[in-house]
Amino acid sequence: MLKRILVLALLSSALASVQAAEPAGKLTTETIIKRTLESRLSGAKVDGVTKTPYLGLYEVRMEGEALLYTDEKMNYIFSGSIHDAKTMQNLTEKRMRELTVVKWENLPLDAAIKTVRGNGKRTLAVFSDPNCPYCKRFEKDLAKVDDVTIYTFLYPVLSQDSHDKSRAVWCSADKSKAWNDLMLSNTAPAAARCDTPIEKILEFGRKYRITGTPTLVFANGERVPGAIPAEQIEKLLAQNAK
User: Is the pTM of this model over 0.85?
Assistant: First the structure.
C-alpha cells in the first residue's frame, strides 16, 4: 500500500559551500536546504522549504509541484508518500491538495463558457482541451450531474487544431451547445474568427501550473487533475455544498 521510498545520500561538501557563502547565523535552515538542494540536484528549482511536524523532516517543494523530504543535515532525501500510521491517511497527498488550491475568486469567470443545469446552485470549473480524449470521457460523466453551474475554460494545449476548435466554439452563437456538441457528439462547429479569451486562459494556466486536461476546480479551491467518474464529481460537489 505504501509507495516505495527512494533514499539518496547527499555530499556534505555542498552544504559546507552554501554555509560558507554567508556569515554564520544569517541563514535559516530552510534557506540552507533550498540552496544546497538546488546546487546538488543539477540545477533543479526549489520553490520552498517548510519544516513538517513529523520526524524532524523538511518538506521540499520542487518546481512542477513535486514534494521531497529531507532531514535537517540533508544526509538523505526521501521521495514518495508519507502516511499517518494510525489513520493511514496519505499526508503527502493531503499536502499537495493544499498547495494546489486555486481560490474561486481568482478564476477569470468572464472568460469561461457558463452552463447551468437544474437549479445551478453548485459550482464547478473545468479546464479542457477539445482534442483531449480524457476530457471527452469526463464530459460524458459530467452530463449525468444535475443542479450545477459549470464554467468551462477553453484550454487548448495539445495542438493548433485544439486552438482552432476552441476559437470556433467561443465564436459560436451558443457557446455551451457548441461545446457539448463537440465533446459529446464529435460535431465540430463551423470555423469562425472573433476575439477570444483563450490567451488569457492559457496565461492563467501557466501561472497556476495547470499542465494537463481536464483539470477541475471546486468552489473551495480544491484542484483535481484528470477525468473522474460522475459518482466522485457528486461526492466532491456535495462536500463543497456543506
Answer: no
